[in-house]
Amino acid sequence: MASSLTCAGIVWAFLSFLCAAASCVGFFMPYWLLGSQLEKSVSFGTFRRCSYPVRDESLQMTVMVEQCGRYASFQAIPSAEWRICTVVTGLGCGLLLLVALTALMGCCVSELISRTVGRVAGGIQFLGGKCACGEGMGM
């Protein structure tokens, strides 16, 4: 298999993939904030949560659901700031993954990544990194 990347480009491709994978795993895991509520351990991320309180109308009290799951809808995410964080971080992870997979394909396909494509991919990767770190869009 011929490659359109130099040795530095191949290292960049694999490191990009590892960083994109770590960003995506971090985004999907519900362990951003840890704490306790109603004497139970709770955790949540931008769109997933573990051990969360719900109102049980038959018992007329709040009970803890001791399982992990995503919010029922986008509007169920607790605040507008968390919704914005979900969109921006998800966009950043998507951009990082797109560039990483393109770079990995460049390791196997000759003439896929030229100097110009590499520079554009680097710019997209920079933008994706800023979004995934919460620094995108003036944050």
Q: Could you explain how this protein is built, in words?
A:
The protein is an alpha+beta fold. It has one domain (8-133). Helix content is 50%, strand content 21%. It is built from three helices and four strands. The chain has helices at 7-28, 80-108, 115-132, and strands at residues 33-37, 40-44, 48-56, 61-70. It has a four-stranded antiparallel beta sheet with strand order 1-2-3-4, with no helix packed on it. α1 (7-28) packs antiparallel against α2 and α2 runs antiparallel to α3 (115-132). The chain is elongated and about 65 Å long. The protein starts with 6 loop residues before the first helix and ends in a 7-residue tail after the last helix. It is a multi-pass membrane protein. It comes from Tichodroma muraria. It is found in: Membrane. Residues 1-21 form the signal peptide. Its main location: membrane.
Secondary-structure map:
Blueprint: H1 7-28, E1 33-37, E2 40-44, E3 48-56, E4 61-70, H2 80-108, H3 115-132
Antiparallel strand pairs: 1-2, 2-3, 3-4
Signal peptide: 1-21
Membrane topology: Multi-pass membrane protein
InterPro entries: LHFPL
Task: Describe this structure in a few short sentences.
The protein contains 3 helices and 4 strands, in the order αββββαα.
Main attributes?
four-stranded antiparallel sheet, 139 residues
Q: Order of helices and strands, N to C? A: HEEEEHH
Per the principal axes of the C-alpha atoms, what is the gross shape? elongated
Radius of gyration: 20 Å
Supply the number of structural domains: 1
Largest sheet features = 4 strands, antiparallel
Distance between the termini: 43 Å
Give the strand line-up of the largest sheet.
1-2-3-4
Number-wise, the strands total 4
Class of secondary structure makeup: alpha+beta
